[in-house]
Amino acid sequence: MKITKICCIGAGYVGGPTMAVIAQKCPDIQVTVVDLNEARIAAWNDADVANIPIYEPGLDAIVAEARGRNLFFSTEVEKAIDEAQIIFISVNTPTKTYGKGKGMAADLKYIELCARQIARVAKDNKIVVEKSTLPVRTAEAIKSILDHTGNGVQFQILSNPEFLAEGTAVQDLLHPDRILIGGDSSEEGQKAIQALVGVYSNWVAADKILTTNVWSSELSKLTANAFLAQRISSINAMSELCEKTGADVNEVAKAIGMDSRIGPKFLKASVGFGGSCFQKDILNLVYIAKSYGLNEVADYWEQVIIMNDHQKRRFSNTIVQTLYNTVADKKITFLGWAFKKDTNDTRESAAIYVADALVNEQAQIAVYDPKVSEKKVLADLDYLETRTSAQNKACVASFEDPYLACKGAHAIAILTEWDEFKEYDWKKIYDSMQKPAFVFDGRNVLNAAEMKAIGFVYHAIGS
Ligand code: NAD
Ligand code: UGA
């Protein structure tokens, strides 16, 4: 089947960049990205590409090239569904906040709404692609909804999970390690798989496109995130042991990473991983394992989250203890609020939890992040519902200038590994701070010897 029209439901961190790259690489395919969020779609359509809603290095140029040619952003969901041969579902699948599975299971209400809408609108056969990260066997539920509420047309469900990381999304999409497509073993299922393989073949080598059954594909996505997050919790566990024993976690990570069986990536000790997916996907995995009665499997993976929560708490505790057991009314400056560098995304960022703990101790928090606004910082804290908005506002302020943010501070905490932090005039910052001047480097980005030579009391993770 020759694919000429694709639609994607969900114009978020995955739908937007993924479809922009498909449109750039497949000029003969019309790609329409739809969303219910009018403000988000308006931002994607902003005449100035600097204002698109997601900051990702290189994304603005791709959107500028393809938008209006074969890439469109719209709120007309039904029209896009009606016209498309392939429909990607890329809506959010957050952790449930209510009912059965609260705090663990994935909330699939947005997915079900999409399935019902596709069923209602579709007047010819469609390929429906799960791009969102979903519990294993969700395709079965989608298929059941489509087949029972549709107009008698045929649907093929494919699982095509996304492995991009934020901050490097464009490079990850242009040069993926692999593309995973799961589908049905029937002849129709295999044809659908080949139609999607045909789209990716425009820029991805055949040996990197992996086809599997649907369940393997769905479970591989959860497994990949669990393994990645587990490496971070493993090195973070070692960081605490390093601090007690005089070992240096950077040296340990380098030493083990040179073992080709372990490899060097994802061994950077930190204040704890954040982002919208690692915690959500592991909780989801734990929930699935428990629902099959696999308690040892569930406990094994849950420990990754327990360790990560411990690491965030440990960081705020260290700050309080080092500052003579009180941070009340002390200015503590956060450099970085995003969950990692090169993104404006703050979902589940460690900074939120560290700030919350320090505000509980009545600290005054000053925040500087090159891509995150004060409004977002306050909204993130309000979302925790630890205290009122007015109380958060009285304790937390953002700055546009990092030097001003650090002026008069008792301590600086580095929460995100933005490259620019390494380039600052640290002597100038030191001179403007209260003494002793403390730096808690939650990302190990600064040079310990240089910081100590300036006069800072410098704390890194894991040394
Ligand atoms: P997001 O919240 O940024 O975007 C989801 C969008 O879907 C929102 O704009 C929302 O308005 C829209 N939406 C929800 N229901 C809708 C409906 N019925 N009709 C139209 N639009 C609707 O989420 P995201 O970060 O892009 O993640 C989407 C999925 O991809 C999740 O399952 C996530 O686990 C997975 N994923 C995310 C990443 C990542 O780096 N963020 C990477 C890989 C996979
Ligand atoms: C992660 C995965 O890397 C992607 O493959 C996956 O597609 C995505 O989740 C998803 O499913 O959403 P992302 O969360 O965007 O991507 O970013 P990562 O680079 O994985 O970083 C996650 C968190 O771990 C960040 O807070 C980061 O700072 C932290 N991290 C990462 C460490 O603390 N140490 C490391 O060595 C690596």
Automatic annotation (TrEMBL):
Q: Which organism is it from?
A: Flavobacterium sinopsychrotolerans
Q: Write the protein's name.
A: UDP-glucose 6-dehydrogenase
Enzyme Commission (EC) number? 1.1.1.22
**What are the protein's UniProt keywords?**
NAD, Oxidoreductase
Alphabetized PANTHER family for the sequence: UDP-GLUCOSE 6-DEHYDROGENASE (PTHR11374:SF3), UDP-GLUCOSE DEHYDROGENASE/UDP-MANNAC DEHYDROGENASE (PTHR11374)
In alphabetical order, the GO MF annotations are: NAD binding; UDP-glucose 6-dehydrogenase activity
Q: Which InterPro entries match?
A: 6-PGluconate_DH-like_C_sf, NAD(P)-bd_dom_sf, UDP-Glc/GDP-Man, UDP-Glc/GDP-Man_DH_C, UDP-Glc/GDP-Man_DH_C_sf, UDP-Glc/GDP-Man_DH_dimer, UDP-Glc/GDP-Man_DH_N, UDPglc_DH_euk
Lineage top rank: taxon: Bacteria
Purpose of the protein: Catalyzes the conversion of UDP-glucose into UDP-glucuronate, one of the precursors of teichuronic acid.
* Family as reported in the entry's similarity comment: Belongs to the UDP-glucose/GDP-mannose dehydrogenase family.
Q: Which residues form the UDP-glucose/GDP-mannose dehydrogenase C-terminal domain?
A: 333-448
Q: What class of enzyme is it?
A: oxidoreductase
Annotated binding of substrate, by residue = 162-166, 221-225, 261, 268-274, 339-340, 443
The metabolic or biological pathway listed in the UniProt record of this protein is:
Nucleotide-sugar biosynthesis; UDP-alpha-D-glucuronate biosynthesis; UDP-alpha-D-glucuronate from UDP-alpha-D-glucose: step 1/1
Q: Where are the active-site residues found?
A: 277
- Which NCBIfam families did the record assign? NDP-sugDHase (TIGR03026)
Which one GO biological process term can you cite for this protein?
Answer: UDP-glucuronate biosynthetic process
- Which residues of this UniProt protein bind NAD(+)? 10-15, 35, 40, 91-95, 132-133, 166, 277-280, 347
